[in-house]
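Work Package 3 (structural annotation) set out to generate three-dimensional models for the target panel prioritized at the project kickoff. During this period the team completed the workflow that converts sequence records into discrete structure tokens, so that structures can be stored uniformly alongside our sequence database. As a representative example, we reproduce one entry of 281 residues exactly as it appears in the project archive.
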Amino acid sequence: MITFDVYSLNITHFDWCRGIHSLNQSFEYEFTTNPSITSISMYGVSVTLNTTRIALKISNLTETHFDARYTLFIYNEYGNSSCSVKLLEGRVPAKPVKFKVNALIGGFQVSWMPGNSGYFRQHFIITYRSLVDKNWTKFEHLSNEGRQTVQGLFENMKYIIYMYARNDIGKSDNTDYETIQTLESYTISTRQSYSVTLSAYIAACFCCVVILLLASAFYIRLREFAFKGQKKTQMENSKQKEYCQQRHFSIYEEVILNPAQNGKRFIINTIAIDDDLNTSG
């Protein structure tokens, strides 16, 4: 049925046309007129108008009735006006695409992209059940927003989910089945705790490596410093020995213990002996 609400005074007559061909009242085409009330907005103000609803009812619809433009011509004593509409063939809606399911704590979230509505308003049916249950549960989504959250399910439970679209004519094909496992309440906190523990462990290991490297560097520097000091002492002793050998001196140290100096040892005398004299003292 095609209907128009017409606002006009003293309608004298009207005609229905399909394309350029005029339609006659018959069993196939039935014309009706009834008083109606229509609300419109004028300059931001809601106004109620007394109108006339003129309808065209088509019986025994076939493919030839569709994809055609139907026009209503209205006449009164001041002139005429017209309005038209294209009659489209209604069909079942297309299957939703990009169907995806994400697991939540005790539930899941479904996202999809709606397909062609079949020229009727469509709604979406999300169907699911757990693996241990044979009965399916249906959740009806009425808007065209391609997202829906389902909560209140068992935690840590596997579910099978699919969906389809429906309009006044029928339903679409089903989407593919998706299997998910709902999350547990402690899963997220456990993962966060594990991440913190792992981060602390890595930081501790890094600090240990840095300390070990610093200690190794300090030890190597200390060894180098000690080696240089020892080498310097050996060189000084070697030079002194060489000097004495060149002067033909032998050095003797006479040491006594001085009680007045708290038992400290002192070199009292160093006597040079000429090897050529072959004397000793």
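DSSP finds one helix and 16 strands in the chain.
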